[in-house]
Amino acid sequence: MSSTFDQVATIIAETCDIPRDTITPDSHAIDDLGIDSLDFLDIAFAIDKQFGIKLPLEKWTQEVNDGKATTEQYFVLKNLCARIDELVAAKGASA
Amino acid sequence: MQLEYFHMIDRIVDLKVDEKTIVVEAQVPKESTVFEGHFPGYPLMPGVLLIESMAQASGFLLLGVLKFERMPILAAVKEAKVRGSVFPGDLMSIEASLTHEGSGYAMTEAKIRVGGKIRANSSLTFTLIPFPNADMRGYMAKVAERVGFPQQVVSP
Question: What confidence tens digit (pLDDT) does each residue in B117-126 have?
């Protein structure tokens, strides 16, 4: 089974037509890959479906806007994947 | 339907919040300034207004599912197909279903039928925003009343 990062990178590559080999765990989805908020909705949709979760985009956005979090915490891919793993684990624990 | 005011939907026929589906009707007027230019001698509904009709049908579905706590705003149109023309005087039956409810966004599938035949379909994405002000919230309440939005859906 491929890693969370591999699955997310494939989703990003296919959704945004970005060469897969340019996407690394340290890539910032917005600053490095140039993904805008509308394209990120398609990525979030694909992640929600693939992992059976609901990425809390509104909460994350609010935290960034309030200065309580940085975009790096949620949009650098290794951090995004860690958040996904946490959500998957939380879902499994509550099932 | 009042094309000039973007009042596309006339009546909610069936809203099933639990199943996340809606059916609405839209009576295309026999005359409109829109048809004077689109097209002289061959009036037909512009494709973009068919998409707007599907978006508004989806919007009422989302308002019902979200109990009027958020306003859906059209963000993306995908795989839109106009499969046949819609003419002045046609009665459109528009179906929409919620395919995914994300955090702050939602996706729907919608289709338009006339006389049972599909004339257009599309996948639509909406962002779900707080009502920006009381005026818009009040306006949407009036629109909901006009189209027969079931009040028990909002305040059971």
Answer: 999 999 999 9
**Among candidates B100, B103, B127 on the partner chain, residue whose Cβ is nearest the Cβ of A56:** B103
Q: From CA A50, how far away is CA A29, in angstroms rounded?
A: 18
Is residue B39 reached through a cis peptide bond, with omega within 30 degrees of 0 on the bond before it? Answer: yes
C-alpha–C-alpha distance, residues B71 and B104, integer Å? 10
In the beta sheet, which residues pair with residue B81?
Answer: B121
Q: Is B123 on the interface with A (CB under 8 A)?
A: no
pTM > 0.90: yes or no: yes
Contacts of B107 in chain A (CB under 8 A): 45
Q: Which domains does chain B show, CATH number per domain?
A: 3-144 (3.10.129.10)
- Domains of chain A: residue spans and CATH: 2-91 (1.10.1200.10)
List, for residues B53-93, the tens digit of each pLDDT value.
Answer: 999 999 999 999 999 999 999 999 999 999 999 999 999 99
For B37, the token pair is: 């230019």
Flag if B103 and A45 touch (Cβ within 8 Å): no
